[in-house]
Amino acid sequence: MDMLTGFSVTIIVLAFLVLLTLFAGIKTVPQGYGYTVERFGRYTRTLTPGLNLIIPFIDTIGKRINVMEQVLDVPEQEVITRDNASVEADAVAFYQILNPASAAYQVANLEMAILNLTMTNIRSVMGSMDLDELLSNRDSINERLLRVVDLAVEPWGVKVTRIEIKDIRPPTDLVEAMGRQMKAEREKRAQILEAEGSKTAQILRSEGSKQSAILEAEGEREAAFREAEARERLAEAEANATRSVSLAIAEGDVAAINYFVAQKYTEAMASIGTAKNSKVVLMPMEASSLIGSLGGIGQIAREVFGSDGDAGATTQPRPSRSTPTVGARRPDSES
Prior knowledge:
It is built from nine helices and eight strands. By secondary structure, the chain is an alpha+beta fold. Residues about 305-335 have low confidence and may be disordered. Helix 3 (about 110-125) packs across helix 5 (about 140-155). The longest helix has about 80 residues, at about 170-250.
């Protein structure tokens, strides 16, 4: 009975030791983490997420490193710019551990190291810029900070993925001065735009006047040309008419002579009658004997030019009243 009892105890102890050994040699690493393995205090390898086996009682877990991307809040700090303006700025940094062994054994207190490195470079980068440049070039500041800090933490197995300046706050009096400056600048731009608008309007009006004058001159030139052409055609028509009448007179055409003289006489009488400065029109004595005068002119033309051509024609009786002779002077006109 005592032997069975001792054997049972031995089995129980062996089973316990096996379970303890299995428990010490099997390690489960959660996703997003990396465990370093140390053998007698010396780093040997890194366990990846999942089920891993190590040598029990010889290998131990050294550091449990979070390899997920993490955010680091950079506290607010005062920065003196290149033009001696004091501003307060805070930022946020994102980083990820790519090499758990380097992050565990190359630097102590990794997070504090990244934080101080970021704050130092913020003061360095922002201090090398003017206030206006600082407020208007945040993207440039973020890019410079990311490049410098990422290069500095590379030996630690860390990758800085992003650094963002959250806020930049100048002093209150400086903000008010900037507001006045901005207002003055906007008023200046408004005045410049107004002056440029007036200048453009005057130029356009001048161009319009110039074009109008050119078109008016061209119109007057065209009108004068057409008027001269009309006068030329009228003179040509008058010359043709005179030539036709002269030819008719030369040929002894009495009807043409009568028509020409009557037309001119009638036009002259119409001009006298339609004059604006005449209320009473005094008709000359010859007007009442217009027909007789025409008949006399025709008789003279026949006597001068038609003596041969009209030899066989029947002699027309003279009018009963005397017709004034062409070119004869009136008795009452004598002095």
